[in-house]
Amino acid sequence: MQVSTNAPSHKADVVMSITATQKAIAEVKRLAEKRKAEGKTAPQGLRIGIRGGGCTGFAYLFEWADAAPASADKVFEFEDGVRLFVDPKSFVFLDGTELDFVTNIMGYGFKFNNPNSKGACGCGESVQF
To answer: How many whole angstroms separate alpha carbon 106 and alpha carbon 104?
Structure first.
C-alpha cells in the first residue's frame, strides 16, 4: 500500500511506483524498532536498489539509510512512517516492483516481486534484466 511519493510519471497516464505489502511494512518497522532498541541510530528509511554483480548480472541492494535521502532519490512513504529510498538509476529497473515479506518452508525474508525481471539465479541473490 503506497501512501505518497515524489516520483512523478514521465508518461501522461502511467503512474510509476514501488509498493509494499502489509507484511513487508510491518517487518521493516519491527526491524527499525529493534535497531533503535539496540542503541543504534534510528534509520531515516530503507534504501533499495540495483547494483552490478551476482551470477546473472545484477543484485538487489537492501540497506538502512541513516542519512536523509539525496535530492534525486525517489522517496516512497508508507503507513507507520516506513520510507523507501530509491536512486534514479535503480528506479528504472524497480518501477512497478512490490516489496513483500514471505515465510515458507525454506525460511523467511524480503522478496522483490519485480515485473521487469527476466530471470534470476538459482540461489535467488541476483537478477537478470
So the answer is: 5
Which amino acid would we find at residue 1? M
Residue 54's domain spans which residues? 4-128
The count of structural domains within the chain is: 1
Question: Which CATH number belongs to the domain containing residue 67 in this structure?
Answer: 2.60.300.12
pTM of the full structure: 0.80
Which grid cell sits at 100? 513483500
Closest by alpha carbon to 48, among 6, 87, 95, 7? 87
Using H for helix, E for strand and C for coil, what is the string for the chain?
CCCEECCCCCCCCCCCCCEECHHHHHHHHHHHHHHHHCCCCCCCEEEEEEEECCCCCEEEEEEEECCCCCCCCEEEECHHHCEEEECHHHHHHHCCCEEEEEEECCEEEEEEECCCCCEECCCCCEEEC
Q: Tell me: the pLDDT tens digits for 18-75?
A: 999 999 999 999 999 999 999 998 899 999 998 877 666 788 889 999 999 999 999 9
pLDDT of residue 123: 58
State the residue for C-alpha cell 524480503: 110
